[in-house]
Amino acid sequence: MAGEETFSNLHEVLRNLYDEMMPLCSDITGVATGVAALGALFYVASRVWQALSRAEPIDIYPLFRPFCLGACIMFFPTFVLGTINGIMSPVVTGCHGIMEGQTLSIREYSEKRQKLEYEAMKRNPETAYLVDNEEYERQIEDLGWSPSDLKAMAGMAMERIKYQAKQSMSNFFRSFLELLFQSVSLILDTLRTFFLIVLSILGPLSFAISVYDGFHNTMIQWICQYVSIYLWLPISDLFSSVLARIQVLMIEKDIAALSDPTYVPDVNNSAYIIFMLIAIVGYFTIPTVSTWVIQASGAGNYGKQVNSWSMKGGRAAAAVTGASVGHVAGKLRGK
């Protein structure tokens, strides 16, 4: 819980950082206004000259384009950023609400599963002493001091040590993968915040350049890039909610199986570890998924690079984890 609160605080710091960096747009607005004014002069002059040279009437409507862009530049934080953020904020809030609902379900079912696993182990006379100290002491007291009893005591102590070692190692790998999963989420959110800050600060300049002929697509590309990167957060929340739902289904299946008195629970959490590895690799596909919602070539190229890195990192993580788990399991089993 403490780790989750720490990462939540870091995500909140990144959101506050974005809000605090927005006033820097005013530093670029003056330069962008000058660039746009010069571009508007060339834009209007060229079209008026073309109409006069052809003895055609001057079409006034297209001449409003540079002036509209100039108004957007002068009031960029309000007109442009405020409008886009206002439209996208409900999407972020809705996706985050979905994720929180699934997370609460995970905590509830996890506590129930842990309780049932403990009861299942305690219900079985062969494994009760592994999880319950009182049962272990009672069985030790029932034994005598004969050589066979002393051998039984030593065997029980070794089995208990092996079980605790398995539990400790399993909990270590699970905690490590959970930390790695949260770190990947934080890395993605940090990159998203950095890209949004850069786009927001230099956005007036992009709008100013789009005034010039040949660069009209710059504004459209900026909007696509901004919206695409902005969608990383809601898409990551949806991805987390899907992962949480899968975990809930896995836990529900375990709870149903634990109702059988003959069922032996998986204390190694091997399925959970494999699932976390898949989740870590899948988190890097979020930039690519965002380009499916709105086309942005730059973010797509970045997504391809991230996917390439994630596949390499996923193979390495899977190899290290699998080798470590196999080695530890072999040692504990005496192989």
Write a brief caption for the model.
The protein has 335 residues and is mainly α.
Give a verbal description of the structure:
The chain is mainly α and 335 residues long. It has one domain. Helix content is 85%, strand content 0%. The protein contains twelve helices and no strands. It is rod-shaped, with a radius of gyration of 30 Å. The C terminus is likely disordered.
Strand content: under 5%
Low-confidence stretches: 299-303, 316-335
**Based on DSSP secondary structure assignment, what is the total number of beta strands?**
0
Name the structural class: mainly alpha
Q: What's the number of helices?
A: 12
Through-space gap between termini: 37 Å
Question: What letter string, H or E per element, gives the SSE order?
Answer: HHHHHHHHHHHH
Keywords: Membrane, Transmembrane, Transmembrane helix
Pfam families: CtnDOT_TraJ
InterPro entries: Conjugative_transposon_TraJ, Conjugative_transposon_TraJ_C
Protein name: Conjugative transposon protein TraJ
